[in-house]
Amino acid sequence: MEQFVPVKRSKDGQPVRYLVVDDSVFARKNLARMIETFGGQLAGEAGDGMTAISEYDRINPDIVLMDITMPQMEGIEAAEKIVQKHPEARVVMVSSVGYQENIVAALQRGARHFVQKPVKPEVLYEVIKYVMGEDGTVVNSAGAGV
Amino acid sequence: MKMELIQPFINAADAVLAQGLQSPMSVGNLSMEEEAYRRKGMAALIWITGDIEGRIIFDLDPETAVRVASKFAGADLPESDELIRETVFELANQVIGNAVTSLNDQGFHFRVHPPVLHTSDHGPKSSEDTEALVICFETGSGHVFMNIALRYSHTHKPERAAAV
Prior knowledge:
The complex is a heterodimer.
Chain A: E1 7-9, E2 17-21, H1 25-37, E3 41-46, H2 49-59, E4 63-66, H3 75-85, E5 91-95, H4 100-108, E6 113-116, H5 121-132, E7 136-138
Parallel strand pairs in A: 2-3, 2-4, 4-5, 5-6
Antiparallel strand pairs in A: 1-7
Helix pairs in contact in A: 2-3
Chain B: H1 3-21, E1 26-33, E2 42-50, E3 52-60, H2 62-73, H3 81-105, E4 110-112, E5 116-118, E6 132-139, E7 142-152, H4 158-163
Helix pairs in contact in B: 1-3, 2-3
């Protein structure tokens, strides 16, 4: 898999910490592999919206990658609950169901961005940089911010 | 069966498989199945209800599923029932999700039910108004079968889709 110039946290130069939420173990593993190529760290995983909320409270990640269609609680509702409690939360929806109503609903309820499956690593990488904004720094091999 | 219902699924399968496998694929054998569906390997069955209703079966033999999973993951993965099931389900989710997105943008509204494992050797028999189309996608990792039996629901108004 292609390697990307690492995106680090601006405040301390540490890897961006991710919470990956998807009911498919296969999908979670694929996203975890991409995160690794971005220089990020998988801080936690969840297979449904309810667990995602408790995991967010526990690990306080920099970014949440959230599927939509999941058992118990769907991703859009979970994103809303996380953002209500943590307005600074950066939630990126990652779903194969990318029709406009879904995207609008997700953004209205607090998600920062939407990426359609199958996820292209280069697309997710750009979204991560955008969502991190000034809180993220692209660090070249010499360790200098780009 | 209406081709405009089928085409989004073919396009979605083409996009998902070509990207995930990082190799070209082609549509191989295409046939109408009048008799009950014969399962090839590990199969996921997904029901759709709403303006369009019916079911789609995704079917891969275990060896193909492992090769597909390894390609998607970018590393060789050991064969296990869990891996094979996960691969078939996620593939089905992605293809159907993409097809649904396309159909929704055309004005169709419906619900996609979560995939269930299709374990019987024979699937539901198609009926007069829901003939099943079996499409074989030929990929570098093996054959992927998609069996589609869809129809407009009795409540669907065609002009609704055309107006959007």
